[in-house]
Design a protein that fits this description.
By secondary structure, this protein is an alpha/beta fold. It has nine helices and eight strands.
């Protein structure tokens, strides 16, 4: 039975209309005087720290602790500003799925597994009234490597629940192949949702436990092992 459910944020819980990318670009322009600094960068499934390091490398900026601090101090200012103007939304089925998790006979603990720094994650989720659902998490400022964030989240969940969790007791929910890799790093179950950066067919080729168009296509009870035996979906063969 699943004891801990870990959600990705962007493209899984919410769509912000690119608020994070816009805040990155504004920070690059105002703090480092480089316009269009995100043009060569791919954001899906990445950690914020790895993205900033890539930017520093591309533009021959010293990746010093002071420069990282300069970036993130200004980034959170711009992110808050952009989010208040954004016309984003929660992804399909998210509210219902979270309510159904809470209504299970043995509700799991809900956490976050995200490349966003913690303050960035909080700003985004507060904007869409979701932050209070989550009691723990692993964030982009905990480690630069996304798979190591999964290890950190598993350890934190185990401490919180006072039990050494196995992979089968953890469910990761995300929208990119990198999220699937994250789940595999801790042998967790994986629910891939095609609400963000990848198509359903692409997600299925990476063999998650389940792959669905959105969270309306699967029940909380099924994914958490509280509706009898859960069968894994066979991934569609790539054409």
């Amino acid at each position: 039975m699943v004891r801990l459910v870990l959600f990705d944020i962007d493209g899984t819980l919410i769509r912000t209309g690119g608020a994070g990318v816009k805040a990155f670009e504004l920070t690059f322009a105002t703090e480092f005087k480089i316009a269009r600094g995100t043009e060569k960068m791919k954001f899906a499934g990445r950690t914020d720290v790895s993205l900033v390091r890539e930017f520093f490398t591309l533009h021959e900026i010293d990746p010093s602790p002071d420069n990282f601090a300069r970036f993130f101090d200004r980034y959170t200012f711009w992110l808050d500003h952009v989010l208040h103007e954004a016309t984003g939304e929660t992804c399909e089925g998210v509210d219902e799925f979270i309510r159904d998790l809470a209504a299970l006979p043995d509700p799991p603990t809900l956490g976050l597994l995200t490349g966003n720094i913690r303050l960035g994650a909080e700003l985004k989720l507060r904007r869409y009234q979701l932050w209070e659902y989550f009691t723990m998490g692993a964030f982009g400022d905990d480690h630069e490597d996304r798979n190591q964030l999964a290890v950190i989240a598993k350890a934190r969940g185990s401490r919180l629940l006072k039990e050494e969790l196995s992979g089968e007791q953890i469910l990761v929910i995300g929208d990119t192949p990198r999220d699937i890799e994250c789940a595999a790093a801790i042998d967790a179950q994986m629910l891939a949702v095609a609400t963000g950066g990848a198509s359903l067919g692409d997600l299925e080729t990476h063999r998650p436990t389940w792959a669905v168009k959105n969270l309306r296509e699967i029940t909380a009870a099924e994914t958490c092992g509280q509706a009898g035996r859960v069968r894994r979906r066979k991934p569609r063969q790539p054409s």
